[in-house]
Amino acid sequence: MNTLILRGLSQLAVDGVSGVSDISERLHAVIAQRAMLDFSAAQPRTRGITGFVYRSVRGVGTAVGGGLDLLLRHATPTHWQGEGNIAERRLRAVLNGVFGDHLEATGNPLALPMRLRHAAGPL
Questions:
Q1: What pTM does this model have?
Q2: How far apart are CA 66 and CA 63, in angstroms?
Q3: For residue 53, what are the CA distances in angstroms to 31, 37, 43?
Q4: What's the distance, Cα to Cα, between the start and end of the chain in Å?
Q5: Which pLDDT tens digits describe the chain residue by residue (123 residues)?
Q6: Cα angle: 38, vertex 39, 44; to 5 degrees
Q7: Number of other residues whose CB lies within 10 A of the CB of residue 37
Q8: How far from 75 is each of 8, 21, 44, 99, CA to CA, in Å?
Q9: Closest Cα partner for 109 from 123, 121, 95?
Q10: Does residue 118 sit in helix, strand or coil?
Q11: Among 6, 35, 2, 8, which residue's Cα sits nearest to residue 106?
């Protein structure tokens, strides 16, 4: 598999861990607040040990992702060379169909520019 794809997938995985941690923490904060019969505006973050755990999960995910990115960056070209094989093109197309805006916004190497294609080739 192309190392540029591995780099993009690792970035996407780190973004996923961070996003799921954020959602879980917000849900945890709302449940804890309601359990205390506090129905004011929900707090977006937890505090104390719980907040420390969520920050740690995000921090470890970011550190691991940064390490992987650093390793793969040295073994990877900085841009795509050619189109890649059909499986790689399909994987990138599917990921861009689902996460395209996010890939573009985060500078992920899996991001594809919008273009028309015909018979497996760009127009």
A1: 0.74
A2: 5
A3: 17, 24, 17
A4: 26
A5: 677 888 889 999 999 999 999 999 999 988 888 887 777 777 778 888 999 999 999 999 999 999 988 888 877 665 565 566 788 888 888 999 999 999 999 999 899 888 787 776 777
A6: 85
A7: 6
A8: 13, 30, 39, 25
A9: 95
A10: strand
A11: 8
Q: How many residues does the chain have?
A: 123
Residue type for position 69: D
Which residue matches tokens 């390490």? 67
Amino acid 20 reads: V
Secondary structure of 36-71 in HEC code, one letter for each residue: CCCCCCCCCCCCHHHHHHHHHHHHHHHHHHHHHHHH
Please state, as a whole number, how many other Cβ atoms lie within 10 Å of the Cβ of residue 101. 10
Q: Which two tokens stand for residue 91?
A: 């994987």
Cα dihedral 49→53→54→57 (10° resolution): 170
- From CA 46, how far away is CA 32, in angstroms rounded? 9
